[in-house]
Amino acid sequence: MRKALLLGALTMTTIFGCAAGEQPSDDEATTSDENTGQTSSALVNADFIVTGLARKCLDFGGDAYQAVGTPVYLYGCNGSTAQKLRVVEVADGTHDVSLRSNKGFCLGVRGGAVAAGRALELQVCNGASAAQRFALDGDTIFVGTQTTGTVARDLVVEVDRGRGANRTPLVVGTRELDPAEDFRFAATSFAALLPTSGFTYVMTAGELDRALAASHWGSVIEVAPNTDIRIDDARTREISGGVTVRSSRRGTAPGSGIQRANREAGALFRIAGDNVRVTGLRLTGADTSKSDDAPKVAGVASDNPSFHALVDHNEMSGWTDAAVSVNGTWNDATCFLGSPTAQNVRVIANYIHDNSREGAGYGVVSGHGGNPYVDGNTFARNRHAIAADNRGQTSYTAKFNLVTESNEYCNAWVFCWKEQDFDVHGTGDGSHYQGGSAGYLFEMRSNTLFPDGKNIDIRGTPCNLAKIADNVFFSIRSRPYSPVNGYLLQQLERRRHQERDRDRLSRADLWQHLSLVEPADRHRRLRRRRHAGRLHRHRRRLVLPRESHG
Fold this sequence. Notes:
Blueprint: H1 2-16, E1 30-33, E2 38-41, E3 45-51, E4 57-59, E5 73-75, E6 84-89, E7 97-100, E8 106-109, E9 120-123, E10 134-136, E11 141-143, E12 155-159, E13 168-174, E14 184-187, E15 199-202, H2 205-214, E16 220-223, E17 228-231, E18 237-239, E19 244-246, E20 257-260, E21 266-271, E22 276-279, E23 282-284, E24 297-302, E25 309-312, E26 315-317, E27 322-327, E28 345-348, E29 351-353, E30 362-367, E31 373-375, E32 378-382, E33 384-388, E34 395-399, E35 402-406, E36 408-410, E37 416-418, E38 422-424, E39 441-445, E40 448-449, E41 456-458, E42 465-469, E43 472-473, E44 480-481, H3 498-504, H4 507-514, H5 519-530, H6 535-540
Parallel strand pairs: 15-16, 16-19, 17-20, 18-21, 19-22, 20-23, 21-24, 22-25, 23-26, 24-27, 25-28, 26-29, 27-30, 28-31, 29-32, 30-33, 31-34, 32-35, 34-39, 35-40, 38-41, 39-42, 40-43, 41-44
Antiparallel strand pairs: 1-2, 3-6, 3-14, 4-5, 5-13, 6-7, 8-9, 10-11, 12-13, 36-37
């Protein structure tokens, strides 16, 4: 029944998807494919209300104030025509859009050149201008074009300096996934109208597969609200370049889920092109046990270091290999002479937990010269929160992450131990990869680690450097450790006032957030905005807020 209602809503959207008082033109006609649950529609040309930071709306002033050069800004939502933004989809198959005021002016970047820091304003429409061309992926407004003619994914529209005050201007910024970049589109004519014809709702595994097969640059595949998709086969789903797979997991909203119930080795998703995004989903594997007999299954896998990918705001659990696996093409343990692989895969603001398989069980793993950027995630009960193999180009960066709890493992003689949270293999002989060289370059900075035991274990000597700084260790026994010479690695910043910090950031305060939200993401924003460069002052004030928004 729920599926029928949703499909009916999408079908009605295609009929009534124009602005109030208008009739759809021939080139705006749409159809619905009831066999797939998808809406196969022509170009969108309709009015939307756009909500951003502090639940305020994008605004460009009333009719009397609209003119060339009028700024675009944030203002309290009031339902006026000054806040009705017309989305006009470009007729070239990219799903890029033009954004227009009710008086026919186009939103554009001031000065006609797209660059970070430049403000948005109303302009005379010019279809050839890169400064007036945008792209949408469900919560982001991208701006600017590449040489291919499609809007790039590195520059976005954001609220200037993250301020929520009325009349704060909208400007161009780099993509950091901050709340200032979050914009949601709601149609004024019909609630189910999606922002472009590239958006597709899916509710079953079959619909997901057909949507992925038909996707191309600019496609946004959204798992319908309150939906859990179960996948029973072992096939890896490939996500093509420029495609977003998403749901709405933010704050206390859990988002929709995709479960891979099959236990055979493989992966749920594989990054198969540039500028892929997986966001706002609950991604669940089939096995949260510690058994080392379980086949290795990854949640999201990337094995082409040239592809940019963003894995953010998901909940990921039950993956026997890793929630996120990032591999390059360097298979030699001999030290690499040159620069590390570009950090094209970013893992940001996820809740990654219960990936527990002995011998694997990683939150994020880097191998064969991979180099992920791991930022603002919350990790709990993984064998290793972040791990790396010993290949000579393998690297990773871990910043502003929160590790709350680790797993305990026991052997047949009932000898039990806890594994380290951040791990790097060495090339030494034996099953424990101790000694020798250990990857290329690692940075572990501004993380907070609760578990007892070794929080960081670099089991050999990195070919380039290991930077360990500004971290908070809550266990008396926790130290970064290198088995090469038996001495503790020098910490660039030593913990102070340990017991007081432990009391102020209590486990009780912490656990009330972990079922739905990522306190590490909030923790990351506070440290960046308020305490950059002032580590000890931050530690004296380290208290998680009562509310946390992903």
